[in-house]
Design a protein that fits this description.
The chain has one helix at residues 87-106, and strands at residues 81-82, 85-86. A two-stranded antiparallel ribbon has the order 1-2. It is mainly α. The protein is 18% helix and 4% strand. The longest helix is centred in the last third of the chain and has 20 residues, at 87-106.
Length: 111
């Protein structure tokens, strides 16, 4: 089925749209619940303001992205890397440095 230059609101439930292609499409404000998007490719996409909760992003690759203001909380990050560096290792170094700075600040005789 082809939809071209149309403006409709779709309510799609219990359907298989696998292999579909979306190009130059406005899906702003759409809601996705219980959706399988595995193996999908997203290129030149505006996802600003997205909220993602309870998702499986294992194996996700993000390249050339603007992550300004992005926030991760309560996430499993085993094996996650940023520019090839393990995030777990980065957090350990940061925590060690923060503890060291706190200890130095607590000792007035150290300058």
């Amino acid at each position: 089925m082809k939809i071209h230059r149309e403006k409709h609101r779709l309510d799609v439930t219990v359907s298989d749209l696998s292999g579909s292609r979306f190009d130059d499409v406005n899906l702003s404000g759409s809601i996705y619940e219980n959706v399988n998007m595995s193996g999908g490719t997203f290129h030149d996409i505006n996802m600003s303001g997205w909220r993602v909760r309870n998702v499986n992003l294992a194996g996700l690759r993000i390249e050339d992205a603007n992550l300004a203001g992005a926030s991760l909380s309560g996430c499993q990050m085993d094996g996650m890397t940023i520019d090839g560096i393990e995030v777990g290792d980065l957090l350990k170094v940061w925590a060690r440095q923060a503890r060291s700075e706190d200890a130095t600040a607590a000792r007035p005789d150290v300058k």
